[in-house]
Amino acid sequence: MSRYDAWDESAAKVRPGRRGSRPRTKDRPKHEDAVPAVVTGVDRGRWTTLLLEGSEGSAPLASRARPHGTVVVAMRARELGRKGIVVGDVVGLVGDVSGAPDTLARIVRVHDRSTMLRRTADDTDPVERPIVANADQLVVVSALADPAPSPGLIDRCLVAAYDAGMDPLLVLTKADLTDPEPFLRDYAPLQVPHVVTSTGAKGDEPFVGLEDVRARLTGRISVLVGHSGVGKSTLVNALVPGTDRATGHVNAVTGRGRHTSTSAVALPLPDGGWVIDTPGVRSFGLAHVDPERLLSAFPDLVGGADACPRGCTHDEPECGLPAWVAAGRAGSSGPARLESFHRLLRSREAEQR
After folding, report:
1. Axis-axis angle for helices 232-239, 210-217 (nearest 10)
2. ∠ at Cα 127 (293, 93), nearest 5°?
3. Which of 264, 290, 329, 339 has the highest CB neighbour count under 10 A?
């Protein structure tokens, strides 16, 4: 009898294949232990976050983030796909959240946003580009001279603020170079709050009007938007000492400023609140804005829309707004308010140059 005759099938050990050896499931992990954090910076696929106090999504950023809390660098988890994550987002982190050097956590969750400031590349581009999440105030920074103000860009930023449900604030810099009153008259009907600043000595202030700006930003989450060279980074450096945001100069030939900020960054204000500095922009597409959402920013005109035909663009002969204003239903400032509304509509429809 050979030595193989004593073996049967039960004695054979079959090595199971790797495929099917582990049951698969479509259920994603719930990550119930995820740690809440807010995104304060984005750089080449890495997100700088600041750990928050309290449970996820339970309170606004301004009251939960400690300026000197734990900073954690994170990457986007695979299950989020290509979901955009921007500065201001409240996220959930897993993994190493110690903040130690050379450690990396994972972003596994992005919480619902209270607001989203977005733009498109131009007025024909259907792709929305998110800029900042969960901010409540849009600060449009414009120089009164050097470079000259761009009413078209300012109008578009105001439209974006109204569309996002954010409060606008107009900050005019370099008032020492020209009188701001002629420029402000054009925006008086919009009733946009404004602060005028100028360079010069006033105590220890780097420029006049800084305290007024600080008072309007304290306790809020504010986004600064404007052309390059208008003084955004200079303003941020004054509001948040030690920030050292790079500042640039205006080209004497083109009249344009040089881009110095390359990405958005959120910075805590000494007296509470946050300011988010964004790169200088030269265009602000509004292809995503619905005229009805823009009209909601003019409560004194909203009632006139009841007489508008279906699909009214609010800038056509059959529109019911002119009759509403002519009847005095919008108050004494109605005509100027309607003209300002039409101006914002036209800024939305015309290509920014």
Report:
1. 80
2. 90
3. 264
DSSP string, 77-93: -GGGTT----BT-EEEE
Please report, for residues 31, 65, 67, the alpha-carbon distance to residue 105 in angstroms, rounded to integers and kept in the order given: 13, 18, 20
Backbone angles phi, psi at 164, to 5 degrees: -85, -5
**The CATH fold of domain 116-277:** Rossmann fold (3.40.50)
Q: What is the pTM of this model?
A: 0.80
Q: Which long-range contacts (CB under 8 A, 24 or more apart) does 97-104 make?
A: 97/35, 97/37, 97/51, 97/70, 97/72, 98/70, 98/72, 99/51, 99/70, 99/71, 99/72, 103/72, 103/73, 104/46, 104/73, 104/74, 104/75
pLDDT of residue 203: 44
User: Do 145 and 177 meet the contact criterion of CB atoms below 8 Å apart?
Assistant: yes
Same fold, 35-110 and 116-277: no
CATH tag for 291-349 (out of 3.30.420, 1.10.40, 3.40.30, 1.10.12): 1.10.40
* DSSP code at position 34: P
Which residues contact residue 326 at a Cβ distance below 8 angstroms, ignoring those fewer than 6 apart?
Answer: none
C-alpha span between 85 and 254 (Å, rounded) = 34
* Residue 65, token pair as written in the block: 């983030």
Q: Give the Å distances, CA to CA, from 348 to 119, 144, 239.
A: 11, 23, 32
In the prediction, which pLDDT does 352 show? 39
Packing angle of the helix pair 334-349, 151-164 (nearest 10 deg): 100
Total count of residues recorded for the chain: 353
- As given in the structure block, the two tokens for residue 256 are 């344009």
Amino acid at 251: N
Provide the CATH topology of domain 35-110. OB fold (Dihydrolipoamide Acetyltransferase, E2P) (2.40.50)
Nearest to 137 by CA among 218, 36, 51, 244: 218
Query: How open is the CA angle 159-299-60, to the nearest 5 degrees?
Result: 65
Task: With a cut of 50, list the residues of the chain below it in pLDDT.
Answer: 58-59, 202-204, 248-261, 351-353
Tell me how far apart the alpha carbons of residues 277 and 282 are, in angstroms, rounded to a whole number: 15
pLDDT at 5: 62
Q: Which residue has the tokens 């309007």?
A: 216
